[in-house]
Amino acid sequence: MQIKVVRSVYTPTSTLGKMFINNSFFAYTLEDTDRNLKGDCQKKQKSKTAIDSGNYQVVLNFSNNFKKYLPLLLNVPCFEGIRIHGGNTCEDSLGCILIGEHSNMQDKIWNCASKVNSLVALLKSVEKKEKIWIEIAKDTAAVA
Fold first, then answer.
1. What pLDDT digit, counting tens, does each position of 92-119 carry?
2. Most CB atoms closer than 10 Å: which of 18, 58, 91, 98?
3. Whole-angstrom Cα distance, residue 144 to residue 139?
């Protein structure tokens, strides 16, 4: 299974985009500021920095923080515990990828719970059959 996040809106406090699963639109995304770390952990601002673009394996496991099963990204340089979960603003992200049904494409997403539940159900249906990967990419049309 291939999940792709295409980042398209960059603000001083947040990064917004769209999530696709197997090339079909799935949800809007919201992350902290993309500081273009390129593996330089010294550029990271704790709880206020998006992960680097790239490909990461995803597993589904129990989050002690959220008290439920959520997707976890593995081997993310400069980060630990990066999950895909719900939230409405960059204040809810802490480096993670937030997903929601709607977005103003400026600083907010909403109707998150149903999207998170759908994603978890989808991942549960394939996790024992195939590896799950996520690609984080910039929308080349938006980076002018």
1. 999 999 999 999 999 999 999 999 999 9
2. 98
3. 10
pTM of the full structure = 0.95
Instruction: Label residue 17 exposed, middle or buried (CB < 10 Å: 0-12, 13-18, 19+).
Output: buried
What angle (nearest 5°) sits at the alpha carbon of residue 75, between those of residues 93 and 5? 50
Measured CA to CA, the distance from residue 1 to residue 87 in angstroms comes to 24
Q: Counting beta carbons within 10 angstroms of the beta carbon of residue 28, is it exposed (0 to 12), middle (13 to 18) or buried (19 or more)?
A: buried
What is the residue type of 132?
A: I
φ, ψ of residue 11 to 5 degrees: the values are -120, 170
- Among 4, 2, 141, 134, which residue's Cα sits nearest to residue 58? 134
Q: Is 108 helix (H, G, I), strand (E, B) or coil?
A: coil
β-strands 54-63, 68-73: how paired? antiparallel
